[in-house]
Specification:
Length: about 325
């Protein structure tokens, strides 16, 4: 047996260091990210509510947006409340099982989001490149099938990756230099530098991140070619506006994730990763509703109608 593994321990808990090197800013960080958290939840809950009750938004595009917002809500709830609690707490520990569960949930939800974004790009491809067949191809059954595939794929790949990482031997410090149980931070604590483990982690990350992102780029290559064939400038503008929000969200989501996870262990930079992850898990989810839905005229109209009905019911 490897002597390193003989001296390794299976920790009962980890310490989440977070941003403990700036104790004087903990209260400020709590207030700032608590406000961001509330804005994010409000935006995504609004999209889920409006797209659920409005009959005019019961089409595949808004079905996908509703479920994307639902996934995003669960994703930030896995990470942000614990991060906020650690800003105010002196006890920043998390159990071994709790850490594994947190990692599994955020990878599963993040993976499901990657696959769902890829399916949404296919939806936009059919809408723009094959509009006459759209209602036949993107039917209710296919929508639920794509949602199920996204969820099950994210769960299965997350489970395999989580088991792989938490079977590694940990030794020495059990302090995670991050604000949640992230993949690079846990790999950095492992006692082994086995290339087999790194390759396995890399393969799973490729399946979750690079393949869906490649499919998104491929879909938009066909979409761009179709838009350029539209003769009128107004027609091109309308066609592009239907998919611009999704494209921006896909680039933000996949770009940040690929930067963090598709690289070797030797390139791990804790402080840099924390900043990128902070943006990835807090700031960009806050922007998503404004990018892909709340600036959409159909969603705005549906929101006004829903709020109008609520106000009338309260008055009466």
């Amino acid at each position: 047996m490897d002597p390193v593994q003989e001296n390794s321990t299976s920790p009962s808990e980890f310490i989440i260091l977070g941003f403990g090197n700036h104790p004087e800013l903990q209260l400020f960080f709590f207030g700032l990210f608590f406000i961001i958290h509330l804005i994010t939840l409000t935006g995504h809950l609004t999209i889920v509510l409006v797209t659920s009750v409005s009959h005019s938004l019961r089409i595949p595009m808004y079905f996908f947006l509703r479920n994307l917002s639902a996934i995003e809500i669960l994703y930030i709830l896995v990470i942000v409340p614990n991060m906020l609690a650690n800003f105010l707490s002196k006890n920043k520990t998390i159990s071994f099982v709790g850490c594994a569960l947190q990692m599994h949930c955020f990878i599963a939800l993040g993976g499901a989001e990657c696959f769902l974004l890829a399916f949404m790009s296919y939806d936009r491809y059919v809408a723009i490149c094959q509009p006459l067949r759209y209602a036949v191809i993107i039917n209710r059954t296919l929508c639920f099938q794509m949602l199920a595939i996204a969820g099950l794929s994210g769960f299965a790949l997350s489970l395999s990756l989580t088991v792989l990482i938490f079977r590694l031997p940990f030794c020495g410090s059990h302090a995670i230099n991050h604000f949640f149980c992230d993949i690079p931070a846990l790999l950095f604590l492992a006692c082994t530098d086995s290339p087999v483990n790194e390759v396995a982690v890399f393969i799973v990350c490729v399946l979750i991140l690079l393949i869906p992102f490649f499919l998104i780029l491929l879909s938009y290559a066909f979409i761009a070619a179709a838009i350029l064939r539209i003769r009128s400038a107004e027609g091109r503008r309308k066609a592009f506006s239907t998919c611009a929000g999704h494209l921006v969200v896909s680039l933000l989501h996949n770009g940040c994730a690929i930067f963090i996870y598709i690289r070797p262990k030797s390139a791990y930079a804790p402080d840099q990763d924390k900043v990128v992850s902070l943006v990835y898990t807090n700031v960009t989810p806050m922007l998503y509703p404004m990018i892909y839905s709340l600036r959409n005229q159909e969603v705005q109209g549906a929101l006004r109608r829903v709020l109008g009905r609520k106000i009338i019911s309260w008055v009466s």
